[in-house]
Amino acid sequence: MKKILIIDDEVNVALLLSKFLTRNGFDVTTASTGSIGMEYLKNGDFNLVLCDFRLEDTDGREMLKNIKTQYPKTGVIIITGYSDIKMAVELIKMGAYDYITKPLYPDEILNTITKAIETHHALVEDKAEPLSHDKSSREIKKQVFANDFVTGTSKVSKELTRQIELVAPTNYSVIILGESGTGKESVAKSIHLNSPRHNQPFIAMDCGSLTKELAASEFFGHEKGSFTGALYTKIGHFEMANGGTLFLDEVGNLSYEIQAALLRTVQERKVKRIGSTREINLDVRIIIATNENLQEGIQKGRFREDLYHRFNEFSIFIPPLRERGNDIMLLAHHFLKIANQELGRNVTSFSQEVIDSFMSYRWQGNIREMKNVVRRATLLTEGNEITMKALPLEISNFKIPVYDYTPQQAEVHDIKENRHDLKNAALEAEYETILKVLREVNFNKTRAAEILNIDRKTLYNKMKAINIK
């Protein structure tokens, strides 16, 4: 359970906030003064501090300095009124993760806190590891990766690590390409951690969930009252990331109008909040990620070519998990260790049958899918070893098919070699398409047949032939 310390001299505010966060699964402690808060920090290992900017005995600036110096693993969010927003932005540059304004809105608070705990933990974990003095600077630098980034031993993983180390010290904008779930944000964090900006903010933004109306406010911020529903002044992600790194995930989903505004901001290195006349100078490194083909988007008129070239100063491709060989089990053991810590378990290994399944499975959801599979299996396992019965059906029943045609019949076998055969590739694609649709409809075969544009009997025959039960 994540531990949060609330420091606020308004007792009613602290009490209401404490009750709300407790209901949402956090372990909450409250303090009415800065000195009491620092005493609590001495005696407890807190993940996050929510500190009011104005306290009876001190202020948010001093509290932030003290917490960062004495407890670097603890993230800080500043609680402030409208009149202190300018100062709150300065505190973000000093190391605070974010700020929230009064009056407090539950959804905003919960979203900010969740992101703060995840991001701050990732950015400080590796910095806290002691390093021996006899290591070369290059060896030390290789250890500085985001907490959820695992340095693999396969050829493709070593090349990925080399590219991160190569581009990180520069100020280049970077495009990270890869399938969904391959760890694009982890790579972005690792670039940030290895850059001269590593002590500045790393701000991540999911462009895939933004509507056209919301995007401008999220990117550039807005002033209170600038439009209907603007109940408070909001700092945009560009301003929050000033001096550091802004990571834009699934940037291909942005509307063409927002892309134009984004291009102007990137070119001019200035940002202006909605409803404001004041321009703010920017010094932000931009890293974007996408699982789409942006060049195809350019050809179809969905993505601006000039914006693409602004971003594409350096590109990194993250290979899918199925192409990473021995890294598969390296990652599996990494996630097993994390799951043991989360669940208080002592599962130590995988059965050989599970290892074989992991190595042959296609991992369409990549690293994200593997993490979820291992966590689930750890929860279901009663002994020390994960066995096949703890795996979901799509993995335990998985078999890559190939037909050996005879004049009379077709038999199904595992593909053990000659994987580049055109016949095998077509069957593999058919298998993956059918399984994907079945998952989407929760294995409703009638609905799956409709989507695949085949009748149910044909679907049943295909499922039987390629061993989907």
UniProtKB/TrEMBL annotation:
Keyword Transferase: no
Chain ranges of the Response regulatory domain: 3-117
Any one Gene Ontology molecular-function term assigned to this protein's record: sequence-specific DNA binding
Cross-referenced SMART domains: AAA, REC
CDD domains documented for this protein: AAA (cd00009)
Record-annotated Sigma-54 factor interaction domain positions: 150-379
Sequence positions bearing 4-aspartylphosphate: 52
Any Pfam family hit: Response_reg
A biological process term (GO) from this entry: phosphorelay signal transduction system
Keyword presence, Transferase: no
UniProt entry keywords in alphabetical sequence: Activator, ATP-binding, DNA-binding, Nucleotide-binding, Phosphoprotein, Transcription, Transcription regulation
Protein name: Sigma-54-dependent Fis family transcriptional regulator
